[in-house]
Amino acid sequence: MQEIWIDYLNAIDTKALALTNDEILDAVSRALDAQGRGETVIEPRVHLVPESSDKGHFNVLRGYVKPLDYAGVKVVGDFVDNYKQGLPSEMAVLNLFDPRTGIPKAIIDATAITDMRTGAVTAIGARHLARKDSRVLGHIGARGTSYWNVRLLDHLFDFEEIRVHSRRPESRDAFAARLEKDLGKKIIVNDNWEDCLKDADIMIEASRLPEPTPLFKTAWVKKGAFVVPYGTMSALEFDMTDIMDKVVVDDWGQCGPGRPYGALRRHVDEGKVTAETLHAEIGQIVCGARPGRESDDETILFWHRGLSTTDVALGAAMVDKAKRMNIGQRLRFA
After folding, report:
1. What is the pLDDT of residues 2-49, one digit of tens each?
2. Distance CA 276, CA 195 (A)
3. Torsion, CA 218, CA 222, CA 228, CA 232, rounded to 10
4. Structural contact between residues 92 and 79, judged by C-beta atoms closer than 8 angstroms
5. Measuring CA to CA, which residue among 45, 202, 68 is closest to residue 124?
6. Structural domain spans, the chain
7. What's the distance, CA 138 to chain centroid?
8. Distances in whole angstroms, Cα of residue 192 to Cα of each of 77, 163, 164
9. Left (φ > 0), alpha (ψ -120 to 50) or beta: where does 18 sit?
10. Which of 52, 86, 100, 161 has its CB surrounded by the most CB atoms within 10 Å?
11. Cross-strand partners of 161
12. Would the CA dihedral through 39, 155, 279, 138 be positive or negative?
């Protein structure tokens, strides 16, 4: 049997790679473009709940990106009380494989990948679906993905006003301080949902609710706004989709009926959002098969649950850069 070596990148390595904003956006855009062209396989995520869903669960994401010549499986834990132990709520491992032989190619700490690719999908969605003159961002949530939402959105739009809110004061204050340091601009910290979101041009909901609770009011959404809800438990009022000119998802296969969790879960399960009423998947828009925003007056909602293919794309980008920078380890497999 031939020798088989696996590229291994731990959390220290992935941090040392210091992917730039554009490197992250380019990698994720490539995966979305491939999806729109039918050059990916996305298996709907599955879940492992060790005890109860309010304590946390594991997500297992599986995908293949033909242009990258990689298949991948990511396992990510999502445990909301991890902060009490000084741990991130989401920690992950990504495995990359040769899609023709099944040979394992890489093992990567994917905690940062999860955060980055989520923020990148939010930002790429905004690039195609938000008004080009968007100047005010309202953001609910302060977890790791939230940082990359704001950072990558501001990279594209250079906001005049950024508002943030999170349930715990210490969390939202630390979040704002980090953003101010890294973005070099004032961040407005709100102690309630309405002041954070109302009449913003771009409205992001990345909350950590223990159960569905309609805290995000439809009346706060102004004409022409871009709304991105992706909390595990829905925070939307049920009539939110009634005011939308377009509803876009990342992948209908994992958003459709019968799947657990998600911001539009009730809307889908009760037939308010269907494959027929959906405008497009984001990959169709990125590759040019479907239009994105067509007028400033359109009010648009984008629901993304997380794409395995974007994990694969960022993992591939990290492996390639690590080889150029001589970062990481090689582990003997066979």
Report:
1. 899 999 999 999 999 999 999 999 999 999 999 999 999 999 888 898
2. 35
3. -20
4. no
5. 202
6. 5-113+309-332, 114-306
7. 16
8. 28, 11, 9
9. left
10. 161
11. 136
12. positive
